[in-house]
Write a structure and sequence with these properties.
The chain is an alpha/beta fold. It has ten helices and ten strands.
Length: 275
């Protein structure tokens, strides 16, 4: 579990839905996969109005029907919608597609042209109405976060969702320490780099020592410290079971050294990467 600044604990290993809902032929399997993940305790589900033009939200809503209270639901508003009225309208549409009366954590998907003060006002209105329980951001670098928390109400931010995996470690230089110091969890999307990491010899070697898969080691690495939530997407029940088993892996210092050599941590600041 990972603790939010509010004090609430959420599953450190959740489920992502990016690219779900794009193919009707796989819809039933995707719903079943999310439900298997819930059965395994992966009760944080991340989705967004952007994903498959709302179809990922509809699919998620079907998956959690009848068990909404088990789920910590994360949603996102597009920056083009992030005005005062636009955020409220986008949230209401997401709630309709999800078939629920609340989103547990509502994120600004990335920073756009709308002033942060206006988006914060919308988040505060949605919190007051009960449409959302908490709010956060996504793809915010340390300068954005510093600006955010200096605003009235900005210190209520609960998480920053970013691209973070072995191949994308730039946030470790400044952003991650800044967030950890303030108790703001990092939510890592694409924690296995959409599968592109899995053939790397160093990762495969560590996996062999642990009698695990490269994906499990990549997830265990992402979750090696408190204050990180990982949201891998699984397309099949076998895949989500593989992901969940990563929680049993404890990487030794020698494993971390091998991975640091293959995927060096940053030695200087660099712009936050996005997919």
């Amino acid at each position: 579990m990972t603790r939010l600044p509010s004090g609430e604990e959420v599953a450190a290993l959740g489920q992502g839905t990016w690219h779900m809902g794009e193919n009707r032929s796989s819809r039933d399997e995707e719903i079943a996969t999310l439900q298997v993940g819930l059965d395994l305790g992966m009760t944080l589900i991340d989705t967004a109005e952007l994903y498959a033009e709302g179809e990922a939200e509809r699919l998620t809503g079907e998956a959690i029907a009848g068990r909404r209270d088990e789920v910590f639901l994360v949603g996102k508003v597009l920056p083009d919608h992030a005005t005062l009225r636009g955020t409220v309208a986008a949230c209401e549409e997401s709630l309709r597609r999800l078939g629920t009366d609340r989103i547990d954590l509502y994120l600004l998907h990335w920073r756009g042209g709308v002033p942060l003060e206006e988006t914060l006002s919308a988040f505060e209105r949605l919190t007051a109405s009960g449409h959302i329980r908490h709010w956060g951001v996504s793809n915010f670098d340390v300068g954005d976060m510093t600006e955010l928390v200096a605003l009235a109400g900005g210190q209520a931010v609960q998480s920053d969702q970013i691209l973070y995996n072995l191949a994308r470690r730039g946030s470790e230089f400044e952003l991650a320490p800044w967030c950890h110091e303030r108790g703001i969890p990092i939510m890592a999307y694409s924690p296995v780099e959409q599968g592109r990491l899995l053939g790397h010899p160093a990762l495969r070697g560590v996996a062999e020592r642990h009698e695990a898969t490269p994906a499990q080691v990549a997830l265990a690495w992402a979750l090696r410290d408190n204050g990180v939530i990982a949201i891998p997407k699984a397309a099949k029940a076998s895949h989500v079971r593989e992901n969940q088993a990563a929680l049993e892996i404890r990487l030794a210092e020698e494993d971390l050294l091998v991975l640091d050599t293959a995927f060096p941590p940053p030695r200087a600041g660099q712009p936050l990467e996005m997919l």
